[in-house]
Design goal:
heterodimer; A: about 475 residues; mainly alpha; 3-stranded antiparallel β-sheet; two-stranded antiparallel ribbon; 18 helices; globular; B: about 190 residues; about 70% helix; about 0% strand
């Protein structure tokens, strides 16, 4: 490559990192004007930067698995709605991705599959949330074309089984035991939405009755198939099924011995029995802990938190079959050192940039809502999805800080299982309340107090804000967080 | 909020109910498939992926509200690009506080070059990029992972690694250059333009 080209690429790199000074900017522009070959190089380079950024925003640099997943969706010859094919790709992902990676025994590829599954489901959520308006009256009629029932999502990897929200006017939400039927969206008081019925509109489902729950889920699946003119594939045979079951729960394929045992078993209830056994299996707890460590902290762990401690914490939670709501509570209200309280590593990983990642990740992983966009502006269609809600949630994290733990005057270090050293951090809360400020697109400064589910925490409240948030999640009538 | 109400007459006004059922399945499919390509078309003109995403969102809003104006069978990406271009200029005018380094004239010629790119081109490059990344040294892949984690910047990475920012930018530049050469090699081998 000739020196001018090299120079151009250096300048372009600075351009991408927004590190160009005046002089360099002038030079770059001269070069671009002078030669179309250099222009071509510039465009290619910036777009490479864009590809890395876009692909990682969706799924991290494990883009290889993702590319192949997209190919499957594109190659299919269906004139169906995108959401349908995306949903099917998510369902297929639990088979094809696992088949593809199933033969490798490396831990890395297992993690890749699992996170890949979570990612495909995340793409599904992302695509849907980008297309869909949560509001049911204003906005383009895209909403009616994508009746994603929560029953479908339930078949995907459990880690991604968050609710997508009211996708359709046609399929009513699942009946809740003993509670008044409410819309699944928290609405702002001045919302223009049609009033929702507050009395139960369907039969109340007894969640302790397995047969009833299974029947209800099957009904929703069937309804979804009919809505979208989908022919379901045939029921999996035993060998397919046992492989999937082990992959889904324990994150690995069954051993030959395990397969033989299963295939030779002639009892009619062998599938539910195996599911129960796998559920209790310690390896399932481990697997879930891996998945959730990656979701909560991020595989690249940019804030250098203690992923091992988080893993151990999660493994205990899953092994003890703790209610999810309790685990979430611990994650939100944890304090102390990163090596002593594993749960603290969740927030420790996301407190940068005024805790905006903490807000976004909390909303996405625990509440099933994609709110990152509303950090900067209101939703363009949905009247009741507003920037102020993002910051009202963010305000709950205003008191929490992270500090490095020092040994003498040097940062204390601790070793992870893979040999990497991590600094030790401490998560603490200050007592000051005060307003949280954000800037609208017009440059106005707005102040908010912490608010969730319509409950505002006053500025001078003596109670710890994270505890307040936890309490609100517990008592939230919409029950956004699974029990 | 009312920031965008001027542009959403059709959406705000409850009496303007569309008689048709909304964008077709084909339109939605094209829309989603082309998101990445539109993003990549915007980026060279605004430098920062975060800014490009913002412009993309603005563009999407217009695309989705003007879906009726798209001629089925015509070039969807080209249509989106025309809309995106307007949004880029709107963005540049509006956000004075961001350091916009390029003159209007330069942005024009960049846009003209981008218009020549096809979506097949983008798809092939994506495949090629995935392969090329796999071939990088583990250290380099790690650095990329840190840099391209959501919300991260070069400065963040420098801070975490305890390296001077300059050296991190150098490394990133070198890695991207390597990737670029690798991708171009694969593209020419594959017979692509």
């Amino acid at each position: 490559m000739n020196p001018t080209s090299v120079k151009l690429l250096e300048l372009t790199s600075l351009y991408c990192e927004q590190q160009l000074n005046e002089e360099q900017s002038t030079e770059l522009q001269q070069l671009l004007k002078s030669d179309p070959v250099l222009l071509e190089l510039f465009v290619s380079y910036v777009q490479l930067h864009g590809q890395l950024s876009w692909d990682s925003g969706v799924c991290g640099l494990r883009a290889a698995a993702l590319c192949r997943m997209d190919k499957i969706v594109e190659d299919e010859d269906h004139a169906d709605v995108v959401a349908d094919s995306a949903r099917r790709s998510a369902l297929k992902a639990s088979t094809s991705a696992s088949d593809r990676v199933g033969n490798s025994s490396a831990a890395g590829s297992r993690l890749r599959t699992l996170v890949g599954l979570a990612c495909v489901a995340a793409i599904l959520l992302m695509m849907v949330s980008r297309l869909m308006s949560p509001s049911q009256q204003d906005g383009p009629n895209l909403v009616n074309q994508e009746p994603l029932s929560t029953g479908d999502v339930a078949t995907v990897d459990s880690a991604a089984g968050t609710s997508i929200g009211p996708g359709s006017a046609e399929i009513p939400p699942l009946p809740l035991v003993g509670l008044n039927q409410r819309g699944n969206r928290r609405t702002a008081p001045d919302s223009e939405q049609e009033p929702r019925p507050s009395e139960p509109t369907g039969p109340v489902l007894d969640l302790s009755d397995d047969a009833a729950v299974i029947a209800a889920l099957n009904d929703r699946l069937r309804a979804g198939w009919q809505e979208n003119n989908v022919q379901p594939v045939a029921t999996a045979d035993d060998s397919e099924w046992v492989r999937r079951a082990y992959l889904t729960f324990t994150g690995r394929i069954p051993t030959a011995a395990e397969v033989r045992t299963f295939l030779n078993d002639s009892s009619a209830r062998k599938r539910p029995v195996l599911v129960d056994a796998l559920n209790q299996d310690l390896r399932t707890a481990e697997n879930l802990a891996v998945i959730w460590t990656n979701l909560l902290i991020g595989r690249s762990n940019p804030r250098e938190v203690n992923e091992d401690a988080m893993f151990v914490f999660l493994e205990e939670q899953f092994a003890d079959n703790q209610p999810w709501l309790k685990t979430v509570g611990q994650l939100i209200t944890a304090s102390g050192r990163s090596d002593e309280n594993g749960a603290a590593n969740f927030l420790l990983a996301h407190l940068n940039n005024e805790a905006t990642p903490a807000t976004a990740v909390t909303a996405r992983l625990f509440l099933g809502e994609q709110v990152q966009c509303t950090q900067c502006h209101d939703h363009p269609f949905a009247r009741d999805v507003k920037q102020t809600q993002f910051w009202a949630l963010n305000a709950f994290f205003k008191q929490v800080k992270r500090q490095p733990v020092l040994l003498d005057t040097r940062p204390m270090l601790v070793s992870m299982q893979d040999g990497r050293r991590r600094r030790v951090w401490e998560l603490t809360d200050s007592n000051d309340g005060g307003m949280t400020f954000y800037e609208t697109r017009r440059g106005q400064q707005v102040a908010v107090l912490p608010e969730y589910a319509g409950v505002v925490i006053p500025e001078d409240s003596p109670r710890n804000r994270r505890e307040e948030l936890w309490h609100l999640l517990e008592t939230d009538p919409d029950q956004k967080v699974a029990r | 909020m009312t920031e965008n109400s001027g542009r959403f007459q059709g959406v705000d006004d409850p009496d303007h109910r569309r008689s048709s059922a909304g964008p077709s399945e084909e339109f939605i499919r094209l829309f989603t498939q082309n998101q990445r390509a539109v993003f990549l078309s915007i980026l060279p003109m605004v430098a920062s992926p975060a800014d490009a995403e913002e412009v993309l969102q603005e563009t999407n809003v217009v695309i989705l509200s003007k879906w009726e104006q798209f001629q089925p069978g015509s070039n969807f990406l080209a249509w989106c690009r025309a809309i995106a271009r307007l949004e880029v200029f709107r963005f540049r005018r509006r956000d004075r506080r961001r350091a916009i380094h390029l003159d209007d004239a330069i942005v024009e010629i960049i846009a003209a070059r981008v218009d020549e790119q096809s979506s097949a081109d983008f798809d092939q490059r994506r495949e090629a990029l995935a392969r090329c990344v796999e071939q990088l040294r583990e250290k380099d892949q790690d650095l990329l992972r840190l840099r391209y984690a959501v919300g991260a910047s070069g400065d963040d990475v420098a801070e975490q690694l305890g390296r001077p920012a300059n050296s991190v930018y150098q490394s990133l530049g070198r890695i991207r250059r390597t990737l670029l050469e690798c991708v171009r090699r694969r593209m020419t081998e594959g017979g692509a333009v």
